[in-house]
Design goal:
Length: about 325
C-alpha cells in the first residue's frame, strides 16, 4: 500500500536533497506536496490530509511545533517527524507531548531517513490491518444480528445464557489464532528491521541462474516462509522486495501474484504455524498432526499446481491477456 507524505522545510537545498536522495516509491510513500513554511504546509494538510508529515521545527511564519498542534486537531493519527538543527531540550519535550513519531537531527543521512520511513510504514500497515479487522468484525456482527433476534424473540430457543456461552467459546477459539497472527507480525517486523528481505533479494540476484532456477527457488522460499508467517505479513514482507527481482528475470506481475498466493495458501495448512490447522484444531479438538495427515493429499495437489503455474506462465497469463490485461 502506498502512503502519502508532506515535506515542510524552509531551506530549499535541504528540501530538494531529501526528496532526490530517497526512492520514495520503493519505501511505499508518495510525496503529495512540499512547503517552505508552516502556513503552506497547513494548506496542503487541509486539502490532502497526508499520512506522514516531515517538518522542520524552525520555519518562517509558522514553525513545526505549531503546525503539529494544528495537524493533531485535523487528524490525530497523522505520523509526524521533526527535523531540527538545534539540540534544544524544550523541542524534544514538545515532540513528546505532540506524539511525534521521530525526532531527527540535521544533517539527516539517507540511511537514517530510510530506517525512519521503514519503521513508519510498518506502523501504518499494522494500523490499517487492525482497522480492516475491526470492519470485518462489525460486518459479521451486523450480518449475525438478525439471526440472533430470530432465535431470541421468534423461536425463543436461544437464551441469553446460550449467547454468553457461545461468545465465550468464540473468544477462547479466536484468541489463540489472534495470538499467532500477532506474533507472526512481530516476527515480520524483526525480519524487516534486520534487513532480511533485502539480503534475500541480493542473494537471488547474485545466483546468476536461468529463469527456471529462479522460479523454483522462489517457490521453495514462499513455501518455507508460509509455514512460519501469516499471509498478510508475508505479502507485505516479500512482495515489495522480490517482485522487482522476479520481473528482472522475466516473471510477470500476474504470474508472480499467482505464485505468491498459491504458495502462501499452502502455508496455511502446513505446520508448525498453519492458521487453518489451528482453526480446525480449536473447532473439532483433533490433534494438528492428524488434521495435517488428512489434508496431505490436497496439499500435494496444491504443490503440483504451484509448480505448474511457475513453470508454465501461460496458465496464469492466458486468460487475463484475452481480456486485455
Amino acid at each position: 500500500m502506498m502512503y502519502t507524505l508532506l515535506l515542510a522545510e524552509d531551506e530549499y537545498s535541504v528540501r530538494k536533497a531529501i526528496i532526490n536522495t530517497i526512492n520514495w516509491e520503493e519505501l511505499g510513500f508518495q510525496i503529495i506536496g512540499e512547503a517552505e513554511n508552516g502556513l503552506e504546509a497547513l494548506e496542503i494538510v487541509e486539502q490532502y490530509n497526508p499520512d506522514v508529515i516531515i517538518t522542520d521545527i524552525r520555519m518562517p511564519f509558522m514553525g513545526g511545533i505549531d503546525l503539529a498542534k494544528l495537524v493533531r486537531e485535523i487528524n490525530p493519527i497523522t505520523k509526524i517527524v521533526f527535523l531540527t538543527g538545534f539540540n534544544d531540550f524544550d523541542y524534544a519535550i514538545s515532540a513528546i507531548k505532540l506524539n511525534v513519531i521521530e525526532y531527527l537531527s540535521k544533517p539527516v543521512t539517507a540511511k537514517k531517513m530510510k530506517e525512519t520511513l521503514t519503521s513508519i510504514k510498518i506502523k501504518l500497515d499494522e494500523e490499517n490491518s487492525r482497522l480492516r479487522n475491526i470492519e470485518l468484525l462489525r460486518k459479521s456482527y451486523t450480518e449475525s444480528l438478525p439471526i440472533v433476534r430470530i432465535g431470541l424473540f421468534f423461536y425463543k430457543e436461544l437464551t441469553m445464557k446460550d449467547i454468553i456461552m457461545a461468545l465465550k467459546k468464540t473468544l477462547i477459539s479466536s484468541s489463540s489464532i489472534m495470538l499467532i497472527i500477532g506474533f507472526t507480525t512481530i516476527f515480520t517486523w524483526l525480519l524487516t528491521m534486520a534487513n532480511i528481505p533485502n539480503m534475500i533479494a541480493s542473494f537471488f540476484l547474485a545466483l546468476n541462474m536461468p529463469k527456471l532456477g529462479y522460479v523454483l527457488l522462489f517457490d521453495v522460499l514462499i513455501l518455507l516462509i508460509g509455514t512460519f508467517v501469516d499471509v498478510t505479513p508475508a505479502i507485505l514482507l516479500l512482495c515489495p522486495i522480490l517482485l522487482p527481482v522476479m520481473q528482472s528475470v522475466g516473471v510477470s506481475e500476474l504470474q508472480f501474484g499467482a505464485m505468491v498466493i498459491t504458495g502462501l495458501a499452502i502455508g496455511l495448512v502446513t505446520p508448525p504455524i498453519g492458521m487453518c490447522l489451528n482453526a480446525c484444531n480449536k473447532i473439532n479438538k483433533m490433534p494438528i498432526i492428524d488434521i495435517f495427515k488428512g489434508a496431505l493429499p490436497f496439499i500435494l495437489c496444491n504443490v503440483t499446481v504451484l509448480i505448474l503455474i511457475s513453470v508454465f506462465p501461460a496458465l496464469t497469463t492466458w486468460l487475463p491477456s484475452c481480456m486485455s490485461y
